[in-house]
Write a sequence for this structure.
């Protein structure tokens, strides 16, 4: 029997139905927004709209937007740590290792200024994402051990760390400060040329680090 021309056609699938891996795709969209827009644009509503899922679906996979953003930052810390350790292994002196750290931080800040805002601008004490807190502490300890040696910096006794390891705090603040200010375009540097960035950081950091290390 021929189908009637007036018979209703099968309903087309909804265009906004998401068939991919929602967990990974939410993360990828958030990473893309952080890389191309600003942190403030990373919202549950925006991610849900981009993927064609409901905001409620987001919460099936992540407890909050803060958790997702901090998890992206946690992974970035892990990647950065590998890069920093590899670079440090090629330098012969503490001064050169610290300058190399600063250069890597600044280049990362230029490439990912909004991610740097999350990594070094958030003060989560482990209540939202314990893994982020642990990763951020590892980054700090990694720099401290360039100065004081492995095991020379103990965060379990913060009072002693403040008293005995002031140079670690100074160097860390210097690196992060440069990463954020240069990444934000505060200085007249060609940010498309990594060699220009490295040269500027070397000229800026070396005198301060050499002077500090002379009193160490």
């Amino acid at each position: 029997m021929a189908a009637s021309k007036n018979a209703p056609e099968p309903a087309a699938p909804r265009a906004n139905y998401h068939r991919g891996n929602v967990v990974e795709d939410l993360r990828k969209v958030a990473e893309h927004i952080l890389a191309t827009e600003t942190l403030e644009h990373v919202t549950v509503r925006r991610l849900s709209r981009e993927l064609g899922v409901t905001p409620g679906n987001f919460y099936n996979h992540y407890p909050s937007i803060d958790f997702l953003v901090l998890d992206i930052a946690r992974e970035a810390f892990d990647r950065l740590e590998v890069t920093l350790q590899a670079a440090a292994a090629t330098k012969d002196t503490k001064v050169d290792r610290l300058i190399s750290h600063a250069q890597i931080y600044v280049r990362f800040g230029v490439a990912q200024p909004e991610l740097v805002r999350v990594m070094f601008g958030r003060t989560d004490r482990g209540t939202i994402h314990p893994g982020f807190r642990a990763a951020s502490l590892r980054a700090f300890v990694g720099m401290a051990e360039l100065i004081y040696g492995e095991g020379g910096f103990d965060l379990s006794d913060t009072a002693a760390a403040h008293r005995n390891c002031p140079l670690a705090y100074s160097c860390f603040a210097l690196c992060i400060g440069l990463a954020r200010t240069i990444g934000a375009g505060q200085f007249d540097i060609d940010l498309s040329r990594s060699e220009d960035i490295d040269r500027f950081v070397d000229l800026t950091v070396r005198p301060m680090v050499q002077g500090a290390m002379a009193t160490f």
The mean pLDDT is 88. The chain has two domains: 16-62, 70-214. Residues 45 and 55 are 6 Å apart (CA to CA).
